[in-house]
């Protein structure tokens, strides 16, 4: 498959047939670092979405001087979640990355609240969460551009 180029505000990103993104100053490459692959970006995005659920749960439990553990968990999780989202957006389109991050984070937050008894289990909510997760998986396969499976437009 031919190499594809896409201009970004911070540089040029070249994608080879193997899905490896190269030659962009905005990518995590350099001495001793492998270029950010699309699969690595998706794994990072999903980890960031899990951390979003962690900080949302910590925020809901109350943060402040009287709750130092919840405050520390919130601060660390929100920082790592945002950094991971920012890194993943270097290889995944911003709209797709943000939709996946918020969707998976929201689904996990609700599921955790149901599992811990903080929220009542409702089958209708579970059905809509399953739909949300299904749509998120679909975004991974079409990547939002021209309906190409896992591809990106020039």
Secondary structure elements and their pairing?
Elements: E1 4-8, E2 11-15, E3 21-22, H1 38-60, H2 68-88, H3 94-116, H4 123-142
Antiparallel strand pairs: 1-2, 2-3
Helix pairs in contact: 1-2, 1-3, 3-4
Quick overview:
The protein is mainly alpha-helical and 154 residues long.
Properties at a glance:
mainly alpha; 4 helices
Structure description:
The chain has 154 residues and is mainly α. It is built from 4 helices and 3 strands. A 3-stranded antiparallel β-sheet has the order 1-2-3, with no helix packed on it. A hairpin with a 2-residue loop joins strand 1 and strand 2 (11-15). Helix 1 (38-60) runs antiparallel to helix 2, helix 1 (38-60) packs across helix 3 (94-116) and helix 3 (94-116) packs antiparallel against helix 4. The longest helix has 23 residues, at 38-60. The radius of gyration is 18 Å and the shape is flat.
